[in-house]
Amino acid sequence: MQYNENFTLIAKTFQGLEEILAKELTSLGADNIEIGKRMVSFTGDKRMMYLANFSLHTALRILKPIKQFEASNADEVYEAVKSIEWGDYLSVGQTFAVDATVHSEQFRHSMYVSYKVKDAIADYFRDKEGKRPSVSVKNPDVLLNIHINDNQCTVSLDSSGVSLHRRGYRTETGEAPLNEVLAAGLIMMTGWQGETDLIDPMCGSGTIPIEAALIAKNMAPGIFRTQGYAFEKWPDFDAELLESIYNDESNEREFEHHIYAYDYNPKMVATTRGNIKRAGMTRIIDVEMRDIKDFVQPTEKSVMITNPPYGERISSDNLLELYATIGERLKHAFVGGQAWVLSYREECFDQIGLKPTRKIAVLNGELECSFREYEIFEGKYVKFRESGEELDKDKEKPTGEKPNKRVLHSKWLTPEQHRLAELERYEKAEAKKKRLEEEKLHPELKAEHSKEFRKERGKQFHKDGDKKPFKNDGDRKPFRKDGDKKPFRKDGEGKSFRKDGDKPFRKDGERRSFRKDGDKKTFSKRGEGKPRRGESYPERKKRELKEKGE
User: Fold this and answer.
1) Is the pTM of this model over 0.90?
2) Closest residue by Cα to residue 208 from 183, 191, 171, 226
3) Residue 163, Cβ density class (10 Å: 0-12 exposed, 13-18 middle, ≥19 buried)
4) Distance CA 311, CA 324 (A)
């Protein structure tokens, strides 16, 4: 397999973690970093590819694109894939597998796309060598990926193999474990890097505390990996290079604080202790069986990050009670602290009873969750501000300019959407600044700019090419088309609502008849046919017959 000195790579991640991943790649020294949807592209050499697999906390897998093309149907995909020189990447004696990701109206079934790619590769070797490589879904020698977005197709080599979220330390889990990559991303979103203690009062299998320990010590998550990487089976695999990366501890640091993991379930406490022991973090993570209602004020300044149950394992009544307890403990036993809570039910957040400082949209599997920050201060907010303290949301506001409410106070904008909104605002400000400078140098441009400005603001309602011109000031817009026989009526002239020959309007005081001519029945007299107060239906009928003499 031939590589250039530098080549393009793609790091896959969860939606909402793209900016965090881009920052990690920047710290590793990657070049040409570009953020996409659930992915970040970058360039680097073979060492960078090995390092990205070994060191990134928020990447699910690292792909190396080998061909990009356009296709509108499965046959075009087949021909494009078959045209690749597969002998550079795969031999007949090796096994392979294909993973397909499809976001397109033309291609509805990702499984069918993967079958077409497999057929193209098999036919390539059959035509070249007379036999084909085998497919192995569980443990392939070469793992391929095809990504289709509309009609844009990318075929890549998967350098990771087994997903990078499988660190290797978590062999036991609970009923609804949090993905390791998502847990690391949540911790990095808070900005915590080990400056204070960290607490998870509902730790489950211990994913958040262990990932926090890795971040605090700046340890690569790949150090625990036992299943290896897919690139180890590539023809140009450099074992010495990977070993040098594995043994490099120059970037690790000491963690001078502590991490506390609590859970009320004794089984989960035992599971957490086992996972922490496998991760080698028993010295810095304390595990204790404790209910959230027994949570007490920490002695040191702390950050709380927790992922409470969402309702799958306990009833809704107990669930709401649990979140009410969380809010009560935060108010009375976490004063001066910063708490982050991940959940997806709005009624659960309502039970906490605190106003969040920040809300971040996060996709946890198929659930559209919210990751919310609560800053707990003693007393009222007014007195808190008078003392000179600030919340995080106050610190983020730019000084000297009016904040953009749409950006700063939006509930569900992802970090990438925040960045794009700020970029749009900056570009508009720069364009306005440039226009004012031009008008200062050339005053005659001001009228032209004003005309363009009115057009942009929607003053021109007619499209170019419309025949109807704008009406001049004072022109009366006609309501009838030219050629109509009926003229406008003159002032004071009454408009007739009846056709010629119709009966005239009745005179004032004249009673209008609601019956047709010839009807024998007359109008009923006043009070006739109406039931009397307290009179039943049989009594009414009997009375009416008696009055008629029947």
Assistant:
1) no
2) 183
3) middle
4) 14
Q: Is 456:438 a contact under the CB 8 Å cutoff? A: no
**Pair (376, 399) in one structural domain:** yes
In angstroms, rounded to a whole number, what is the distance separating the alpha carbons of residues 42 and 8? 6
Tokens of 547: 């009055």
- DSSP-assigned beta bridge partners for residue 260: 199, 286
- Write out pLDDT tens, residues 485-518: 556 566 555 555 555 555 565 555 555 555 555 5
- One domain, residues 424 and 400: no
* Ramachandran quadrant class, 421 (left: phi over 0; alpha: psi -120 to 50; beta: rest): alpha
The residue type at 317: D
Q: How many independent structural domains does the chain possess?
A: 3
Task: Kindly give the residue spans of alpha helices, DSSP state H, lying in 457-534.
Answer: none
Dihedral sign for Cα atoms in the order 376, 209, 230, 143: negative
CA 86 – CA 82 distance, rounded (Å): 8
Tokens of 229: 């990487």
Is residue 74 one of the residues assigned to a domain?
yes
For the record, the structure tokens of 404 come out as 């953009």
What region does 282 belong to: left with phi over 0, alpha with psi -120 to 50, or beta?
alpha
- The pLDDT score that the predictor gives to residue 438 is 80
User: What backbone torsions phi and psi does residue 328 show, to the nearest 5 degrees?
Assistant: -65, -40
CA atoms within 13 A on the CB side of 268: 20
Structure tokens at 13: 């991640």
Note down the domain range covering 64. Answer: 7-158
- 97 - beta bridge partners? 143
